[in-house]
Specification:
mainly beta; Jelly Rolls; seven-stranded antiparallel β-sheet; 58% strand; globular
């Protein structure tokens, strides 16, 4: 399998100690669509470290994003999600699913500090593929999990366009499939 193109992807972390998680393209025949599966294959992080894989050169304000994800492992944390309007590794929105906590949450991260905007209970098979979809237009945000809208809020915190990417917390190792912005609306 080919490696991650460093011209396309930026591996980074929020609140980390420089022990970057290892992101790779792997083969997973269980993936919902035939396309590369990007996964964390090694992760020694803990606590409030957020593992990031950002798509270089992306800049969206109004966007529809979606990704399939599946938990691989993690003792302290599991699951993962999508980031968008990322100014850098310390300022972005994130919607993430955590099978250990059985929830889906929407946060804004400012200066490396995470603030919860909304939460929904989600009981789902942690070993199966699931889909997160984000629709963000202006200050209106909606988050779907497996085609069910579970979160809808308004927030003006990050009003500028920014990068998009993938996210896990602490020691979570997760596989992602079919990640792409469906559309940039008016950007």
């Amino acid at each position: 399998m080919p490696g991650l193109d460093q011209k396309v992807w930026l591996v980074d972390e929020t609140n980390g100690k420089g022990k970057f998680a290892k992101w790779e393209i792997i083969k997973d025949d269980s993936a919902p669509h035939y396309s590369p599966v990007i996964a964390i294959t090694r992760n020694k992080n803990s606590g409030q470290t957020y593992n990031l894989l950002m798509a270089k050169g992306t800049s969206f304000k109004n966007v529809e994003l979606e990704v399939n994800l599946k938990r691989i492992s993690g003792k302290e944390d599991q699951g993962g999600g999508i980031i968008w309007r990322a100014k850098d590794n310390n300022n972005y929105y994130v919607a993430r699913w955590n099978p250990l906590e059985e929830n889906l949450r929407l946060y804004v991260v400012l200066d490396g500090k995470r603030k919860q905007l909304a939460s929904a209970d989600v009981k789902a098979d942690p070993g199966a593929w699931h889909r997160i979809q984000i629709l963000h237009e202006g200050n209106e945000l909606a988050v779907e999990f497996d085609s069910r809208e579970l979160i809808s809020v308004k927030d003006d915190t990050l009003a500028q366009a920014g990068m998009v990417g993938l996210w896990t917390k602490a020691d979570a190792a997760t596989a992602f499939n079919d990640f792409y912005p469906q559309k940039g609306m008016g950007d």
